[in-house]
Write a structure and sequence with these properties.
- With 346 residues, the protein is α/β, with parallel strands linked by helices.
- The chain is 35% helix and 16% strand.
- The protein is globular.
- GO terms for molecular function: glucan endo-1,3-beta-D-glucosidase activity.
Length: 346
């Protein structure tokens, strides 16, 4: 018995390490449109205290980037829509990359550069792909194209057909815009960023979509799509995007859910209890690495929107998506990562 003890302990230790590092970390979007928010350094400290290991920044805020140095937190950094046209100039793209990425790398762990967020194809869509190409070429000039990926974030308004999920397809009038972007992402081994909100799908169509289906609380399958059963709307919407990407020539291109959330006030079905149910259930699903019915077993990199309630956003509903109040107190308990068991917002 004593001879088996070391082996038993070794197996137990390995199992503990394996379990503690399994699962996909839950990222958080860090917006700063509030006049009562903590400093960037205090906010990144809050990220670390709560074991939040991924962050999305919407612009290259210098104070936030300095606070992220040597933390190991993975970063999506955004190019604001207002700067996209300037980046169609290769020299400007190189300068942008130098000032906002290379000057902080490798102390800051950049993962993606989001070139634009929810750009309307009819209002600036023509500059997105040229800007993406120039940022990529600048990265390639620094030999970082395999470490930091270039993408853009879309919303669900680009989707034409969304039911059933296997029939997902982009609108015909935006294919000129999205198909070349998907081709670029595929050729550069990147991923498409997609902002996916079951909340808005539900409030736009409460007659056909149940609240439990939107909040991950349905006890059984709600929608069958051939042999695939859907118990929640998030999986269905993500599979709609996967199907649309395939129809646009993207094959198995990964999709990162770059925003998803539920408001706790300010609109229909916007309540504390609903927000708590949505965020905690989505975070649990992400950590479990279950994937979707269309792509089972594949981790879904996901960013919860957003870190704080932001009182300078409009309309009113947009002010209430925070996981934390501006005083740094959590609205509800969420486990963001399984890396250290028991680390959660209390």
């Amino acid at each position: 018995m004593s001879q088996l003890t070391p082996l038993f302990l070794l197996i137990a230790l390995f199992t503990t390490i394996l379990n503690s590092t399994s699962g996909e970390p839950v990222g958080v979007c860090y917006g700063m449109m509030g006049n009562n928010l903590p400093s960037q350094s205090d906010t990144i400290a809050l990220f670390r205290q709560n074991n939040i290991r991924r962050v999305r920044l919407y612009d290259p805020n210098q104070a936030a980037l300095n606070a992220l140095k040597n933390t190991g937190i993975e970063v999506i950094i955004g190019v604001p829509n207002s700067e996209l046209r300037s980046l169609t100039n290769p020299s400007s793209a190189r300068s942008w990359l130098q000032n906002n990425v290379l000057n902080y790398y490798p102390a800051v762990s950049f993962k993606y550069i989001a070139v634009g967020n929810e750009v309307s194809p009819s209002n600036g869509g023509d500059v997105v792909l040229p800007a993406m190409r120039n940022v990529y070429d600048a990265l390639r000039g620094a030999n970082l194209q395999d470490r930091i990926k270039v993408s853009t974030a879309i919303d669900m308004t680009l989707i034409g057909n969304s039911f059933p999920p296997s029939s997902g397809e982009f609108r015909g009038d935006v294919r000129w815009y999205i198909d070349p972007i998907i081709g670029f992402l595929t050729s550069t081994n990147s991923a498409l960023l997609a902002n996916i909100y079951p909340y808005f799908s539900y409030v736009d169509n409460p007659r056909d979509i149940s609240l439990s289906y939107a909040l991950f609380t349905s006890p059984s399958v709600v929608v069958w799509d051939g042999s695939r059963g859907y118990q929640n709307l998030f999986d269905a919407l993500l599979d709609v995007v996967y199907s649309a990407v395939e129809r646009s020539g993207g094959g198995s291109l990964p999709v990162v859910v770059s925003e998803s959330g539920w408001p706790s006030n300010g609109g229909n079905a916007a309540s504390f209890d609903n927000a708590r149910a949505y965020y905690t259930n989505l975070a649990s699903r992400v950590r479990e690495n279950r994937g979707t019915p269309k792509r089972p077993g594949r981790g879904v990199e996901t960013y919860l929107f957003a870190m704080f309630d932001e009182n300078q956003k409009n309309p009113e509903i947009e002010k209430n998506f925070g996981l934390f109040f501006p005083n740094k107190q959590p609205k509800f308990p969420i486990t963001f990562s399984a890396a250290r068991e028991g680390t959660a917002v209390e």
